[in-house]
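Two quick folds needed for the group meeting slides. Do the first one here.
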Amino acid sequence: MPDRTTAALKRLERAKQDVARAMARDFREGTSANEIARRARSAYSRPVVLEMIKAELAAQEAREALSAAQTAISLASHVGVENTGRFAIVGMPRVAQKGRRIGDMLTLQAVRTITEAGLCLRPLADHPADTDPAFILRHGGAVEVYKPSL
């Protein structure tokens, strides 16, 4: 029996990411978040639109910061940034396989690069809120990256 559901869900997820990118692009080009929320009101509530814009902006800025921080250790190749639609996450899944010294250095550089870009990191819901994001990243987990204010 053919599986049409999985393919349709993948298309839906890509479409949601396209909407978030378009919202962030409009915002960066000067359209107010309230105007974007008004335009999207048939599909999303205002709070969801604001979350989507913040998440996409944070994801874009994290990617840009990491890409600009290309170093001898090729930091960007060790760090993944993904926009879930509601928030952006950063992960370093392969860093846990590195030796302690290199893994610590990669994690420190990633955290420094992201925070120097004006972004913040916090644990996802599957970790206690007071867990150090660097600890989570160092051990192959993912954390949320966000802008402190829109």
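Then this one, please, same format:
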Amino acid sequence: MLVYFDKEQNAVAQTMGRYHPWTVTTATPDGRYIDFKANPGEIRTGLEDLRYVEGTAIEDAIVDFIAWANGPASPFETNDFGLRPLRSNGSGVSSKALEQMCRVTVFFRELRRNTLGGDLTPFARRLERALKRIAPQFDQACWGWALWPHLFLALGDEDDPDAEGNVIQLQLWGWGDTAQEVHSNMIRAFAVLRTALEETETGGEAPA
């Protein structure tokens, strides 16, 4: 499927570093961090932007992905999610009439792997290749990825460089001529992402 390293978003993210875990933000005061590893039952109510797709199949697909990513069989976790309302497509990438965008972060549960000396960055590059390989003809959704600086408080404080690292910020655009078609393409994109994450972590990597 379509996937690329988003240089512009990466540059923006470099100016917006934050702690993990975080509390509230000035940009979205209603938002708060919830540890979905410990509280999986709060996913549907804790992701406030799901109101834009309430009662739809994409809502269930997002909840399923977040539950898997933070679940006992996954080596990953998430700490951020955002979703924008459906809108007219002005991307120039797809000829479809509508688009919808969402954002999710993914990082290793073993926090030292996310630090500057860890393997998160090469993992993200392999993940990009896997996404392209798994669904090469799928062009009605696109993942853009960037690195978002984080300070992992479980590893140290602001004076400890070994606590500094990144998470992978993934932004998804889905397109379609109807809301149902947009959501169907987003559902497929989340399925491809899960497969790519699993294969990349276990060594089933796309060739360079």
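Slide caption for protein two: The chain has one domain: 2-202.
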